[in-house]
Amino acid sequence: MKIVILHGLFMNKLIMAPLALRLEQLGYNVVNISYPSTNADKSRLFEHIDEQVGEGPAVLLGHSLGGLVITDYLVHQDVSVERVPMVITLGTPHQGAQIAKDMKRVNIDNLLGSSTQFGLLPTDMSKTWPVPQKLISIAGKVKLGARPLLDRVWRDEIEESDGTVSINETQIPGMSEHIVVKHSHTSMVYSREVVNIIDKQCKALNLA
Question: What is the value of pTM for the model shown?
Answer without folding.
Answer: 0.95
